[in-house]
Amino acid sequence: MSGRKIKKLTTFFAFFLVFIFSFSIINMSEYEKNSLNASNNITGKTIQTSASSSLSNKKIGWGIKRGKDHAQPDLGSENEKIIKVFNGICMGNNNNPYVYLTFDCGYEAGYTEKILEVLKQNDVKATFFITGHYLNTAEDMVKKMIDEGHIIGNHTADHICMPESSDEEIKEDVMELHTAVYDKFGYEMKYIRPPKGEYSERTVEYTNTLGYTTVMWSFAYDDWDENKQGREEYGKEKILENVHNGEVMLLHSTSKDNSNILDSCIKEIKDMGYEFKSLDEFEA
Which among 10, 132, 227, 267 is placed 20 to 30 Å from 241, CA to CA? Predict the structure, then answer.
């Protein structure tokens, strides 16, 4: 074969290979393209998100700037917007003197029985966000909450950081607890509180697809710290000074101080003209 023919064949095969490569790129499925673009790098870890999601996975820690004279606090306009865009709950209507009482229950410290008794005596319904550990170690308390008309919320099975978890990991952690509660009590949870108040646009949108409404808060204080108990007057002052219209109050059931001051706080809040409502009665 002459050198000229070999050169022509070589050129033909080169163009052929370029054509095949270009065709494969052009015809890459939308799923593959989106999957490549949907990975978010957080602290060096690649998080694989849903193919259809183009939302930010920037980790946000929920925070509050308290108001004065019972004014609603500043929740941060952008943060508040994210929760509300995805039909979540963080603070109610400023025109109505309603307070929505919620508790986070990571573990049972021996005070929930008293808290439930105070709620019953004052005819107040609350929402208890439980973890998998709480369910496994205090099943009787969860049953009592349900039997007495309170709402059970999902605080995830293992208290994971959602923005640092993939969609599949979030689904596993949320639905593991969801299924366990349903199997034990025939109760289907619908409210979720992200562990440690850490979330992103992606995680709020994704938990929506699991049938959940995200619930943040407009008041909290450092009641969770076991080393900061024995400050009942401090706790009561914080709670009463910061009552406001539409308040979503976060307390921890692990606090001995809360169990001791809850009755007087509820009575004084009612005397101030506020009404306790459940999350099922929430008014945005």
Answer: 227
Q: How far apart are CA 40 and CA 22, in angstroms?
A: 27
266 assigned to some structural domain: yes
Give the C-alpha distances (Å, rounded to integers) separating 104 from 24, 93, 110, 219, 254: 52, 23, 14, 13, 8
Residue 74 appears among annotated catalytic residues: no
Q: Are residues 26 and 75 in the same domain?
A: no
User: Cα(149)–Cα(187) distance, rounded to whole angstroms?
Assistant: 12
Alpha-carbon gap, residue 27 to 23, rounded angstroms: 6
Structural domain includes residue 31:
yes
Catalytic-labelled residue, pool 244, 252, 257, 271: 252
- Based on the fold, state whether residues 168 and 220 are members of the same structural domain: yes
Rg, Å, the chain Cα set: 26
Whether residue 77 is found in the same domain as residue 137: yes
Structure tokens at 211: 């049938």
Is 252 among the residues known to form the active site? yes
Cα torsion for 110, 90, 84, 160, to the nearest 10°? -30
Q: Are residues 112 and 10 in the same domain?
A: no
Position of tokens 């004065």?
Answer: 68
Indicate whether 48 belongs to any domain.
no
Catalytic residue among 104, 173, 223, 257: 104
* pLDDT of the chain, 284 residues: tens digit per residue: 544 444 444 444 444 443 433 433 333 333 233 333 333 433 444 455 554 458 999 999 999 999 999 999 999 998 999 999 999 999 999 999 999 999 999 999 999 999 999 999 999 999 999 999 999 999 999 999 999 999 999 999 999 999 999 999 999 999 999 999 999 999 999 999 999 999 999 999 999 999 999 999 999 999 999 899 999 999 999 999 999 999 999 999 999 999 999 999 999 999 999 999 999 999 99
pTM of the model: 0.83
